[in-house]
What does this fold into?
Amino acid sequence: MSSYLDYNATTPIDSRVLMFMTEVYNNVIGNADSRTHDFGQNARQVVENARQEVASLLNVNKDEVFFTSGATESNNIAIQGLAEYGLKNNKTHIITTAIEHKSILNTFEIMKQKGFVVDIVYPESNGRILSEHVLNKVTNNTLLVSVMHVNNETGIIQPVDEIGKELKKKKILFHVDATQSCGKLVEEVRSLEYDMLSFSAHKFNGPQGVGALVLHKANYKYPPIQNVYGGGQQENSFRPGTLPVALIAGIGKTCLIAQNNYKSDHQLCAKIKNNIIEQLNNSGLKYEVNGDQRFCVDSTLNLSFNGINAEALMLAGKEYCSISNGSACTSKSYARSYVLEAMKLENDKIDSSVRLSWGRGSDCDEISVNFSKLIQKAKSLL
Ligand code: PMP
It folds into this structure.
């Protein structure tokens, strides 16, 4: 069977999470907002337990966690939710980076149409944003800065720790898209300074279709987010709609397991990465790793094979390794990776780049066997 090496797109659900969700689907049938009977109260209990589990993983207060359908929705609420406040208070300048996920970049486009001035910061060729490039763009009108923690294509960790500390001093709202770091860089995420933070459960062995938005209170007040949706009062009206109790139970369990497992997950991920690099070095193939590995997570590798077209390699090798070349959200239409373009990689390097990503549930030995077959395929394409 092909080794699944596309964890940055989505991960297999942990069987413990699935088991718990099934139990909830079977036994907890109420609406968490029904006050008048035990079915509702039981559902509410499940939701609030999960909220506590998310809060514990992130080391935030329980009332700072809001459930959403995933990072895309969290990002939209965090950013578009500030539009009214920004326009009213003449804070109409917002800053992000060229390597963000489309759910940030397209939302910034929407903000532009609403009257905001958008500044986009470019990374260095090593895949990293320089914090001073972000901070130098700040003006008296700046409302918001949004920077991702870990890039989904390269795995490069961005300096959101430094940026967050400085923005806090300047009292500028800071949003972190932690979709690729949550549950993995557990201690790092806990130590960040931010106002808003987004993530999805399915990137760390949880269910698809549920995520969270963390809204840090300052002086007992949430960031000035207005409701983006009309609806009921669920999740403080930030995300109205009937709560998906079993999915929420799933994200809670996912966070609890991550909290207990992240150190052993790291060991597995580092071993897989070392093995892949060793196999590459012994293969005789000419390759380059995209992004400075000193700043890379141990679960991602973005590679360019000299002289080999990535599309051809992915197709020819898919019976051995299931890999991708960039974000699944944009992979319907073939276009060069805008992340690698922003890093100013040459076109032929981009056209020969593939992304491999793995995590809990990956089988190190199986990957070694299949990756050596992928290497043989790559050689046959030269
Ligand atoms: N941000 C980042 C960095 C991501 O990698 C993704 C998923 N590819 C998202 C946001 C969006 O997550 P979802 O599709 O779960 O809403």
About this structure: The chain has a mean pLDDT of 97. Residues 70-72, 101, 103, 148, 152, 177, 179-180, 200, 202, 211, 327, 329 surround 4'-deoxy-4'-aminopyridoxal-5'-phosphate (CB under 6 Å).
